[in-house]
Design goal:
Chain B: Pfam families: ACT_AHAS_ss (PF22629), ALS_ss_C (PF10369). The structure holds two protein chains of two kinds. Chain A contains 25 helices and 18 strands. Chain A is an alpha/beta fold. In chain B, a hairpin with a 5-residue loop joins strand 1 and strand 2. Chain B is elongated and about 85 Å long. The chains are: A alpha/beta, B alpha+beta.
Chain lengths: 603, 220
């Protein structure tokens, strides 16, 4: 889509994006001849067939790094309208493609060469796997005759990535390689999304073929159940009608399943308080009265109180991760669980589902909607939730004469941007503050590494998000100093591609979350968490060709943020925050959600 | 040392009386329901292609399922292979194994076999042959077949249920066992019951979760 093209100039030329989507048929190559010459010539090599498969699938962008074994594919890309973003590191390519998938809903594509290129992708692939993000990774491989001989830059890529992909394939036939890619693309988004990988030996991509790839289609052995069992739906509906203390728990699957709207309508019609998981942020507007925001380890006190005391928990598209549940024994201990998930394996994996509803989130919520005739009588419960909201409000002190509090910076960034602004983060304290103090109202505006907790995710994901985002959506990367330091080479990409990204580095010269745990659980022994010295990120940004800012005290905050946001290109704000600031509330690992600590003394 | 948030202290908050057990099942505060591991046979029909076995065995290892034995071989259809897995897990674990296996793209169908299914394994037992007639007598007892003999040794093939093989090994040990090689269990459902068929016999996921039937594992 051309309006998604952000600052990427070459893609802006692409006037008719329907042309690509329309050609998602096997005979596309011949049909599209009047539109564009580059996509109409019959394929002659495996590599051309790979690229044709991507074009047929509607792929507009790919993220990657060149290399020996993937060169034939890049050579074929040279003639394609697919815009390739050259990344500074393959890990960044995988994260950027992952974020592209989160924001656009379509699988992001990343490419790498064999061996180190492929292994560098692994972190990003594992990240996408944990968060069920649609991602297609294409890796070069040494020629088939060398496979297994420890050739230069050889790695058993399918072997390495099997545990972290939804499916992977070693392509062994030039005639079939394009279809392998089509199938992998289709699999990445079908049912529960996830990363897929196709390993492409150089002789296969170099090999001659005139076979056009098949249209994207998942294999017959992959079956997805769309509608939940009507009997269980009816039973669950009855349970909801009779609930005294109902809660809707919306997970990342709500956003991936495009069920946010249906969930909103359901919650508002029946006045059921709503909690989100971290990946579910944005599925329900946090400024709505029914919203209790996020539950879990660093969730709000009111969300954790509500989840602990509810009697009917309607979990949708969530896998009940331990960061959400805390100790299983004390998680929603009085609640009967209605669990909606497209993946049957998530049902009763961590928390036993009294009403298992396997199916597509949007479809099942509509089924439930039809089945629930009367709203639960839960006026008292809603009042109780509001009471908890005021008892455990997310307020903080920001005295003028003290170092800048991170919460203040997050709120200022939120204020300076529109409701549709996209936030990406690294992993650590800054990520939790970004969850807690930014008010999210729209799905697909929150991009973070939830399950894997990958430090360094922020900047590369901002690149992918920027490219997938609409022009009028700001992209703000809230990062930590430690996290930013891990992948900041991506600044070179942001500058080269003229991407309008604002990075706010909350700099406390600590691996802050580790420091917080060391204070709480290791007698304050700051083993390897105290960085003591950090580069000046604003100057570093300037060295890369980006715009650098620095915030030291409250006077600078609003003005500097405005300048950075309005700067048309990548900018980095080095925000020197209170080095001792910690994240609260907090449920210690495996603890009781209702016993969350509000201060360090309560841990 | 650093300030936090305001609000009632943990001990001032109401605390619910209910509890869940380790499997996440809501229980009566007085009763602790637990699930004992049980031994069972899971049969999976898969596409016969490179990497399937590693997909399946990798799934078991990374999810830390306790696998007792695993056998694999072609079927009547040359594009399909059957993997027979013996596991010992509590019920929720067995349920997870089936569901996770079903998610693998090359897996066509998965089924836990009934206790009356035919289960067989094979063992080759190499013993000292100082008393060949007695070795032959023991082999007879277990329907064993001598597949190799030398002046010093005899190798006997025994097939059957696990207990039978173990009993045979036990009895053969009086002669002095030199080496043993055993296969894992392979199994088929009885009669017209299909061991694992494309989708038709696979339980719908909703039902699978509600199947509380406990069927004690029986090895023959």
């Amino acid at each position: 889509m051309s309006e998604r093209a952000a600052k990427v100039t070459p893609a802006d030329d692409e006037q008719d994006d329907d042309q690509i989507t329309d050609s998602a048929a096997p005979d596309a190559a011949t049909d599209a001849s009047t539109e564009s010459e580059t996509t109409t010539d019959p394929v002659t090599t495996g590599a051309e067939s790979v690229v044709r498969a991507l074009e047929n699938a509607g792929v507009e962008y790919a993220f990657g790094v060149q290399g020996g074994a993937i060169m034939p594919v890049y050579d074929a890309l040279y003639d394609s309208d697919i815009y390739h973003v050259t990344m500074a590191h393959e890990q960044g390519a995988a994260h950027a493609a992952d974020a592209y998938g989160i924001v656009s809903g379509e699988p992001g594509v990343c490419l790498a060469t064999s061996g180190p290129g492929a292994t560098n992708l692994v972190t990003g692939i594992a990240d996408a796997d944990m968060d069920s993000d649609p991602l297609l990774a294409l890796t070069g491989q040494v020629p088939t005759e060398f496979v297994g001989n420890d050739a230069f830059q050889e790695t058993d890529t399918t072997g390495v990535t099997t545990p972290v992909t939804k499916e992977n394939t070693f392509s062994s036939d030039s005639d079939h390689v394009g279809s392998d890619v089509s199938e992998a693309f289709a699999l990445a988004r079908e049912g529960r999304p996830g990363p897929t990988l196709v390993d492409l030996p150089k002789d296969i991509t170099n090999g001659e073929t005139d076979r056009e790839p098949d249209a994207p289609k998942v294999p017959d052995t992959y079956e997805v159940q769309e509608r939940a069992d009507e009997e269980i739906v009816a039973a669950a509906a009855e349970r909801i009608e009779n609930a005294d203390r109902p809660v809707l728990l919306l997970g990342g699957g709500v956003i991936k399943g495009e069920a946010s709207e249906a969930c909103r309508e359901f919650a508002i019609e029946h006045e059921i308080p709503v909690i989100t998981t971290m990946p579910g942020i944005g599925s329900f507007p946090e400024d709505h009265e029914l919203s209790l925001e996020m539950a879990g380890m660093h969730g709000t006190g009111y969300a954790n109180m509500a989840i602990t005391h509810c009697d009917t928990l309607i979990g949708i598209g969530t896998r009940f991760d331990d960061r959400l549940t805390g100790g299983i024994e004390t998680f929603a201990p009085e609640a009967e669980l209605i669990h909606v998930d497209i993946d049957p394996a998530e049902i009763s994996k961590n928390i036993y589902a009294d009403y298992p509803l396997v199916g597509d989130a949007e479809t099942v919520v509509e089924q439930l909607s039809d089945a629930v005739d009367e709203s639960p009588e839960a006026k008292k419960w809603r009042a109780q939730c509001q009471q908890w909201k005021s008892d455990y409000s997310m307020a903080y002190d920001a005295p003028e004469d003290e170092p800048v509090q991170p919460e203040f910076v997050i709120e200022a960034l939120d204020e300076a941007t529109s409701d549709r602004a996209i936030v990406t983060t690294g992993v650590g304290q800054h990520q939790m503050w970004a969850c807690q103090y930014w008010t999210y109202t729209e799905p697909r505006t929150w991009v973070s590494s939830h399950g894997l907790g990958t430090m360094g995710y922020g900047l590369p994901s901002a690149i992918g998000a920027r490219i997938a985002a609409d022009d009028d959506q700001e992209v703000v990367c809230i990062d930590g100093d430690g996290s930013f330091l891990m992948t900041l080479q991506g600044l070179s990409v942001a500058v080269r591609e003229e991407l309008d990204i604002t990075v706010a580095v909350l700099n406390n010269e600590y691996i802050g979350m580790v420091r917080q745990w060391q204070d709480a659980f290791f007698d304050g022994r700051h083993s390897a968490s105290d960085y003591g010295w950090m580069p000046e990120f604003d100057k570093l940004a300037e060295a890369f060709g980006a715009c650098g800012f620095r915030i030291d005290d409250y006077d600078d905050v609003a003005e500097t943020i405005d300048e950075a946001i309005s700067y048309d290109g990548p900018s980095v704000i080095d925000v020197h925050i209170d080095p001792d600031a910690n994240v609260y509330p907090m449920v210690p690992s495996g603890g009781d959600n209702g016993q969350f600590a509000l201060t360090e003394d309560q841990l | 040392m650093k300030r936090g948030l305001e609000g009632p202290e943990p001990e001032e908050r109401p605390s619910p009386t209910g509890r869940r057990n380790k499997q996440g099942i809501r229980i009566d505060p007085e009763v602790e329901a637990t699930h004992e591991p049980r031994r069972t046979v899971i049969s999976a029909l898969v596409t016969h292609e490179p990497g399937v076995l590693s997909d399946v065995s990798g799934l078991f290892s990374r999810r830390q399922f306790n696998i007792e034995s695993l056998t694999v071989g072609p079927t009547e259809d040359e594009d399909r292979a059957r993997i027979t897995i013996v596991v010992e897990e509590p019920d929720p674990g067995i349920d997870q194994i089936e569901k996770q296996l079903r998610k693998l793209v090359p897996v066509i169908s998965v089924r836990e076999l009934e206790p009356d299914a035919m289960r067989r394994e094979l063992a080759l037992i190499k013993v000292d042959a100082e008393r060949p007639d007695q070795v032959a007598a023991v082999a007879d007892m277990y329907d064993g077949k001598t597949v190799d003999s030398s002046p010093e040794t005899a190798t006997i093939e025994v097939t059957g249920a696990r207990q039978k093989i173990e009993a045979a090994i036990d009895t053969f040990s009086q002669f002095g066992i030199r080496e043993i090689s055993r296969t894992g269990t392979t199994a088929l459902a009885r009669g017209t019951d299909r061991t694992a068929a494309p989708s038709s016999t696979a339980q719908p996921a909703d039902e699978a979760n509600h199947d509380d039937q406990y069927t004690p594992a029986d090895d023959d």
